[in-house]
Design brief:
With 333 residues, the protein is mainly α. Helices cover 77% and strands 0% of the residues. The chain is built from 15 helices and no strands. The radius of gyration is 27 Å and the shape is extended. The two termini are 50 Å apart.
């Protein structure tokens, strides 16, 4: 029979996992006593129930569904929570379906702006929706093609000897000046919106591509780096410390200039993760030496200066090698 303490621990584990889908394995939970008082479990249930109801009232169905899920992990027989979760999941499916249809229709009718807004809404409800991401990428590609064409035309106009050839279209009519500056903001706006909607991998890929194409645009680099850094802070607050570290490192790279606060936070996260993996290795060493070795290897990867992890890793490897030699000797004729 599950105890309230174990149920509460399970709930906290899922809260960390559901709050933010990490790119790497999520960090281990904070150690808890095996038996938590009934009052603690009841308080946790009430807290997440309130969050679910508040999110549902605000129309944030994705968060509401997640909170109801946590309530059910803490109280599996709570029929009201199960009904609330089913209601929110149905609302998510309907929202995805309606916005995806609206976005597809707008895209087919040539309304890229309306299609973009609808597909971004889809991603906010379902960050893994491949169809919405595909449409946004296609809009992205076509806008980039138009911008590049406009830039080429502007360059040709400014090149001596080509003015006469490029200043008129067929029939001798003066060619209109391309509105390049107004369209170039697209290069950042859409990737930023997709990143904020939950497409972290795609957003980072677009940010890196932008930086490679515009390495001297300090204002834009600062802007996107700050957005990525802020997302890192959110990830850490939700318990995804490894994703938080990845994002802060990406922010430093995208900025292209030292930011003391960001670098210090990166080091703090590394040392914290190293310490957590070290402790996990200590806990499992007696029953799973190979597993402990892997955990200590990860600890050292995050912080090569972690002497405790280095020592334990060396000792465990030596002990495991000795055990293997003994076993081979026993099997030898």
């Amino acid at each position: 029979m599950r105890t309230p303490g174990r149920l509460l621990l399970c709930g906290l584990l899922v809260l960390g996992a559901c709050a933010e889908a990490p790119l790497q394995p999520s960090a281990p939970p904070v150690a808890m006593s095996r038996e938590a008082p009934d009052e603690a479990a009841a308080a946790a249930i009430a807290h997440h129930r309130q969050l679910a109801q508040r999110s549902a009232a605000a129309g944030d169905h994705a968060v509401a569904a997640r909170e109801w899920h946590i309530v059910l992990l803490l109280a599996p027989d709570d029929e009201a929570a199960r009904k609330g979760q089913d209601t929110e999941r149905a609302a998510i499916r309907q929202g995805v379906r309606e916005n995806q249809q609206a976005g597809t229709n707008a895209w087919r009718n040539g309304d890229a702006d309306k299609a973009t807004q609808a597909m971004l809404k889809v991603l906010s409800l379902d960050p893994q929706n491949a169809e919405a991401a595909k449409v946004l990428r296609e809009i992205d590609r076509q806008k980039l093609t138009r911008i590049q064409a406009s830039q080429s035309l502007r360059a040709a106009r400014e090149t001596p000897g080509t003015v006469a050839a490029t200043s008129r279209v067929a029939g001798g009519t003066p060619a209109p000046a391309p509105a390049v500056d107004a369209g170039e903001s697209y290069d950042l706006e859409q990737p930023i919106e997709m990143f904020k909607a939950g497409d972290i991998n795609g957003g980072l890929r677009d940010f890196r591509a932008f930086v490679e194409a515009n390495p001297r645009n300090d204002a834009a680099r600062l802007r996107i780096a700050t957005i990525v850094y802020d997302r890192s802070v959110e990830s850490e607050q939700k318990g995804s410390r490894e994703q938080a570290l990845m994002l802060v490192d990406q922010a430093v790279s995208l900025r292209g200039k030292p930011v003391a606060e960001w670098s210090a936070r990166s080091q703090t996260l590394r040392k914290g993760l190293s310490g957590e993996y070290y402790e996990r290795g200590v806990q499992v060493y007696r029953t799973d030496a190979p597993g402990a070795i892997r955990l200590w290897e990860t600890s050292v990867k995050y912080d090569p200066q972690n002497k405790l992890a280095q020592t334990k890793l060396q000792e465990a490897r030596a002990a495991l090698d000795k055990l293997k030699r003994i076993e081979r000797e026993k099997k030898a004729p």
